[in-house]
Predict the structure.
Amino acid sequence: MDILITGILLGGTYALIAMGLNLQYGVARIMNLANGEMLVAGGFAAFWFYVNQALSPLLTWVLVAPVAFLLNWLIYQIILRPLVKRAKNRGMLERDSILATFGLSFIGVGVMLASFGGDYFSYSFAATPVVIFGDTFGLNRVLSFVAAVILCGAVYLWMHFTRIGMAMRALAVEPRSAGLVGIKVSKLAAIAFALGGTITAVGGSLISTYLTLDASTGVVFTLKALIIVIMGGVGDIRGTIIAALMLGIIETLVASLIDPGLTLAAAYLLFILILLFRPQGLFGRVRS
Amino acid sequence: MIKTLKRGLTALSLSAALVSTATLADTLKIGAVAPKTGPLAGGATVTQWPTVKLWVEQVNARGGIKVDGKMMPVELIEYDDQTNPGETIKAVQRLATQDKADFIVAPYGTGLNIAAAPIFSRYGYPQIAVSAITDQVADLSSKFPGMFFTLGSTSTFAEDAVKVLADLRDKGEIGNKVAMVNVADAFGIELAAAAKPIFENANFELVYETSYPLGTQDLSPVVKAAKAANPDAFVAWSYPPDTFGLTEQAIIEDLNVKAFYTAVATSFPAYGGRFGAKVNNVLGAGGVHADSAAYQEYAKAHMDLTGQAPDFWASATTYASLQILEQSIEAVGNDRKAVTAHLKEASFDTILGPISFNGNNFNEAFWTVGQWQDGVFHGVAARGRDGAKEVRVKDGWN
Amino acid sequence: MTSKEWRQLTLLLVAVALMALIPLGDDGYWLSICISIVMFTALATSWSIFSGPTHYISLASAAFFGIGSYVTALGFESLSLWVLVPIAGVMGALIAALIGLATLRLSGVYFVIFTLGLAELIRQITTWVQNASGQKGFYVLTDVTESQLYWALLGLCLFVFLLGGLIERSRLGFAVRIIGDDEAVARHVGINTALTKVILFMVPGAVAAMVGAILAPRYVYIEPSLAFAPILSFQVVIMALLGGTGRLWGPLVGVVPFTFLWEFLSSTFPNQTTLLLGVAFLVIVFVLPQGFIGLFASIKRRMNGGRA
């Protein structure tokens, strides 16, 4: 039971880091390798506001979200849209976006380095025990899980019950047809990218309450996020959530019952198995 | 941001001053390559870079280093090796052959120091290594006669950690059950491998052992399992992210051990800053004679110049290594060969106390274990150093 | 062989011979740079032998490089380095075949992500094994000189070019070009696309492992986090793409300027190296989508167009 809840909490963390990327890749078709840097930036914002302004990390999103939205929107318009327009097919766009966002991730690291140095930043927030079903868990992780649920729930509702959300889902499924039914593809893609980046940054703020970050740690999170998004199937929020939870639970199981040293191996095995039996991911659609 | 700007302006004006003095007098070129980005950047940013800058600034404020009766200001040439040994090698080559550096500060981290050793050796640069902790000192110094080791070795760290616990046990303060975990990286693996037989020989019972990958996001399974084994002491051969993570988990789980040890980064001011009074009596790798006037003076100067405090371990040793270099140059002149020979023979006066190197180029006087006591991480165990504080037992996390 | 092919072969041999003379002139900084160039040429060219025609971006170079480093680290005390290198090549090929069989049925981007994490995965397994066996880090202290390593890498480059040339002219090369154009057509024509891809994937796997094995003595201390550093994979990809993957000599044209660019940025801007490298990547992606080869081709087209 302990393992299950720990795993679910960890899954919440993973959902936070992967959700944004799902929007960016699924809808806007950008494999964003700078995802981790956006996460760290959000984390640093939370750190800075907590340490200097005593602002609770649970509220930092009020400040982080609009800035992240604008920043990501600009990144899409200035850097990524020209690539989208130029790409003759999906493969080319993927290749170009991988290289371009890799460049962006370097720039992200460089900018963060220049702004707040290469030192680790960490702080203690809500590092108090919470007892659930007889086992202790960190309050900060529980809070971030609750926030993740709210965030994912909000995104899901938005995607399924608003017009823009529906248009985004259409874009994720079939970009060519989406244009035919009057959806302004490029405008929508920009919004999706910006929204994805915002979710990632807010996720970073929440995660910073219990993980130690520095300017160079983004790459670890990018990797995890990519695995989760692919496993879950691109474009569908449910897939990412389920994949994140599965990963969290499996990793915790392996760490507790087998050996913490094999967690990534277990994650990879899961990744391979899912893709072997369902190459489009858990909730993905077979591409025509 | 503003601090960075201020620092930038200070650096700019300092370099402008250096340039102007350079046109008047020859400068002594000192190269430095260490991570500014990449996985080890966090550590290098705390331990190495600010101390190097501090030393350069202080030396130049005194007019420079006295070489053959003339004062030569120091010109610092820095490079970022991105925690990539290939880049470290290239940067050292560049410093030696293109920039024509007179001396080069040793890189940061065991792996990068050893990768650079052949190049240092080939061009005859003395390499006063700090953050290189290894048991292969004899092999390395015979192959690279200009390589010196200042911070200690793997087995001495393991031995002294066990000794601290053994002393507590023999006094009746703790039992003999130990939970030992390590980060699955060369550093953690080597320490765990060295420590295990030492623990067993000292009649400790290892009730829980495991390793975890570097960068694990959730260490609660590790701490929970350790707690379930009911240990008297918890020892973690850990790196900064997991040092922080394990400590936080221990606080949340209320891991009731009378001795709690995490390795790297326990000596960082950020550790004490984050956890405050909760980590009172936590043990960690390293330590320093924090009450000594020399250290306090150094710490104050460090804080004044860079806006951040030094760590309570390798920062001071890095500074000492630079003091050694300075004293050697002043003794025998701007001659790498002479300096290397001098390093082997002489004794140096540093903020840590006197330092000299034995036949294997190894400094035998260093701190091995420290403990947070009332907001300061004091050294509690050392080889050949005075000022060790009494080890305290940990009682709860509040 | 046609006369054009004879010319190309002669050019290759002459270039290699000239490059072999470099250690005699300088065995310091410039040799170091040339080692970088030769190392990445071998890596990028073998990479594009697979990734060029199939359009599958493999980020697995770091994984194989690490495997090769470990072969040397484990074996150097009992065997000569020159025996270990081919062993590393064989191991790299075998592991590449295994991975290929498991993943090459996946569509492009999944393959990319998998290979990206492969270095991490193998690193984790390596550290776990190391931890379980209590083995300490490896200190590869040998008497091999930098010049010898350089010549070994140069020889490996020659091997890669010859192999690439052979493949291009063979049925395998023909098959893989069809796969690259349209995989469905290739299958209909009876080509075993999966097997073809797997066989081709063994080339960069073997070569990267051999490069890692050769360079292990240079880094001396072999530990997992340094041997399996993921950035290597990205460097290889960007250099190959910078040059262009349409021709065998494409990656070489990318490696040389990129090495100098990296060196320039590292030495001139020590505090903004990473930032400027990122900017350089972006510029490359925008300005040279088809790499230098694409640039040369469009210049040639314009020149011919002008004449006609």
Summary: Chain C has one domain: 3-307. The mean pLDDT of chain C is 85. Chain C touches chain B through 33 residues (CB under 8 Å). The first strand of chain C starts at residue 138 and ends at 139.
